[in-house]
Amino acid sequence: MRIGERAEIGTPLRPVRVGVVGLGRVGIIHASVASAMPNVEIVGLADARSSARREARGVGFRAPMFDRVSTLIAKTSPEALIVAVPHDLRPRLVREALESKVAVLTGRPLSPQLPEAEALALLAQGNDTPLACMHALPFHPVFAEVRSMISAAPLGSIRRVRASSYRSLVFDPARQAAFAAEHAAGGVVAHEAMDALFYLIDCFGMPREVRATTLKLFGPLEDESHVMMTLPSGTGVGSTPAGASRLSVARDRDRVRRRQRPATGLGRRRRAGSARRARRVPQRTRAARPRGSATACALRRRWRGDVSDDGRVPRVGRGRRAAAPPRGAVGARSARARGDLHVGEPQRRGDSARRHAMTAPRLLLSLRSLSGPTLATRDRMLEIVARYREPESLAVTLAKAAAVPVDGVLTCATPMLRAALAELETEVPLFVMVPAMSEYERQELGPGLETAIAASRARVRGMAGLRVGWTELFHPKWAGGGDFVARMPVLVEAELAGLKRDALRGVVLDAWFTDLALAAGHAKFFESFARYVQRRCRAAAASRHATSARCSRGCASGA
Amino acid sequence: VKPDFVIGPLNPSGLLMKPNPEELLAEVQRSDIPVIAGELCAGGVDELESAAAYARERGAHGVAPDVAEVDDAGAELRTLLRATATA
Questions:
Q1: Environment class of residue A360 by beta-carbon count within 10 Å: exposed (0-12), middle (13-18) or buried (19+)?
Q2: Higher-confidence residue: A121 or A9?
Q3: How far B27 CA lies from chain A's nearest CA (Å)?
Q4: Using CB atoms, which residue from B6, B15, B45 is nearest to A545?
């Protein structure tokens, strides 16, 4: 597709044999998506690194793996290759594929050098072989909708365009060094700004003049870019500093704003009394945070008696005894008790205290927003961050949720959660997501489990580490490194270390690993995960996914 | 051996319901694994109560509102609990 042309995203009209070159995070994502598409068959994977191939095999991909592209092409005869490798390797591998007359889909830029990119384009044209670069932003639903709105021109002619990004990944020299390896083609212009510039040109056409400046804040590569393009009509199109997660278009009759997060552009429902509540929970600094009974006094004033005199958040507040946490299949007032649909292992004698753990919940309170950006608007996220800056605030919410009572709280085992639970006397039923990571960490996580295990183990303190060590003894890295089935128990135990097992109702696998295992058709992984959680943790085993239908169907077929 | 439940997006706006809302809802109806609906408010577009009712009516076993989707956790969760009881 060239700039200005639109392509429908759909299923290939006939079966296509596809190979994937590069098995880092991006390559694995492409392999996952491609394997889920009808009429697409993954015939081979290639990466020069044996560790990457081992991790891909551990995820569950069973396609043949090679260390060279030439071998992959020779032995599997793919019709198309997805080349997902670093900038410096990309031109050589793309050329190799094109010379073998294999269609190529690759990352952007095609090459850091314009002459080299042009030579590859000419080679593809000469061989009559399709060659395409990936730009995701124009296909993002919100940005695609904005583009169609701009094309329809219902608001008049464009006077001014501003695009900017809030996605910051580099905050210091160490971070830049981590992102910009020795082979890096460039800084922000070669990465974040690339999609933005493509999108802007796609929307508004080729400019007649471009002026740009860059700033190098944390190292030899540019960290910020400021681009001002002038369209033939004289309209100014500005892009600052590193992408286009926010687009502002000024027109004759109106102004359209869109952000990258889908819902933010669609408006947020009005909340009666939100201003009152905002006043009730003022922003505070960590340095001024009171502790112990002083904290309780402050909270008591704010939440009108929801905190007891001994500085611990009571079960219900106001001197009343808390409702007991939901217990058993007849768990009196719990949401789960109504219209039960019990699944999982049948009850065994003497196991009644754990029986509740095997039932699917009816009502959960999710704390996902406390682990980074979600679909909520930026303003709402800032409000939430301010509200739950201190563990005591979270403890009050947990106490309220337990008093309702909800069937559980869906959360990661973060230090914040542990601190909040320590403030509570009552038991809060927990559905723990594994691994615990912020949205930013998730975006950088590789396909293997070892990074997540290492991060989890680093958080384990004291005696809790013994159980993790014991588990690792039977699931050692040297024997099962990279294998999801072999190493998942270590991750689960490391995540649950230090939490009260009595409060544990379920373990929920994070969407990243669920996606990967589903895409790879790793049925054995889901089976082993469910078995381990149900039998060893005596809790419900669940998975989170961005596509419920696929997850449900995949888990069912996996079982 | 199979998972006890799965959590996934389910909201009236159809946000993140892939491959498309119709196929997802059909799968939720067919599935023998309970589905817990998340992303109920679709980032703030939909009302929590109506979104929860929408999810339950279409076969979701339970709902999991996010802390960012509730202002008063106690009151709003209690309302959802009552709705769950009457459903």
A1: buried
A2: A121
A3: 5
A4: B6
Nearest alpha carbon to residue A365 among B24, B36, B31, B61: B36
Edge-first strand order for the sheet with A16-21 is A65-66, A40-46, A16-21, A80-83, A103-106, A131-133
pLDDT grade for A371, boundaries at 50, 70 and 90: confident
Is there a contact between A409 and A433 (Cβ–Cβ < 8 Å)? Answer: no
The C-alpha atoms of residue A535 and residue A531 are separated, in whole angstroms, by 6
Chain B residues in contact with A366 by the CB 8 A cut-off are 38, 64-67
- HSE value, Cβ hemisphere, 13 Å, CA-based, for A220: 10
Distance, CA of A283 to CA of A278 (rounded, Å): 9
Which sign, positive or negative, has the C-alpha torsion B15, B20, B25, B31? negative
Annotate B27-73 with three-state secondary structure.
HHHHCCCCEEEECCCCCCCCCHHHHHHHHHHCCCCEECCEHHHCCCH
Per-residue model confidence as pLDDT tens digits over A213-222 = 888 877 777 7
Residue A169: Cβ within 10 Å count: 16
Cβ–Cβ under 8 Å, residues A81 and A20:
yes
Q: Tokens in use for A283?
A: 């922003």
pTM value? Answer: 0.71
| Contact (CB<8Å) A269/B13 | no
Best A375, A381, A504 residue to mutate vs chain B (most B CBs within 10 Å) = A375
Shortest Cα–Cα distance, B49 to chain A (Å): 12
Q: In a 3-state reduction of DSSP, which class is residue A239?
A: strand
**Could you give the CA distance from residue A519 to residue A447 in angstroms, rounded to a whole number?**
12
A434 forms bridges with which residues in the sheet?
A509
Q: Which residue has the tokens 């694995």?
A: A28
Query: DSSP letters along A346-395, please?
Result: PP-TT-HHHHGGGBPPSBEEE-GGGGS--SS-HHHHHHHHHHTSSHHHHH
Give the span between the Cα atoms of A442 and A454, in whole angstroms: 14
Contact B71 A262 (CB under 8 A): no
- Interface pTM, i.e. ipTM: 0.96
- The pLDDT value given to residue A502: 87
Using a CB-CB cut-off of 8 Å, the residues of chain A touching B71 are 271, 273-274, 277
- Which neighbouring-strand residues pair with B6? A543, B35
pLDDT confidence bin for A169, thresholds 50/70/90: low
- Give A21: exposed, middle or buried? Use CB within 10 Å, 0-12, 13-18, 19+: buried
Q: What percent of chain A has pLDDT over 70?
A: 70
List phi, psi (to 5°) of A211: -125, 135
**Chain A residues near residue B9 by CB distance under 8 angstroms:** 546-548
Most confident segment among A227-236, A257-266, A432-441, B72-81: B72-81
Would you call A205 helix, strand, or coil by DSSP? coil
Q: Which residue has the tokens 């996606």?
A: A515
3-state secondary structure of A41: strand
- Nearest chain B Cα distance for residue A298, angstroms: 19
The top-scoring range by mean pLDDT among A47-56, A192-201, B16-25 is: A47-56
Question: Which segments of A67-151 are extended strands (E)?
Answer: 80-83, 103-106, 131-133
Interface test with B, best of A366, A412, A492, A535 (most B CBs within 10 A): A366
Name which of A67, A72, A85 is nearest A44 in CA terms. Answer: A72
Cβ contact, residue pair A339, B4, below 8 Å: no
Rounded to an integer, what distance in angstroms lies between the CA atom of residue A50 and that of residue A68?
11
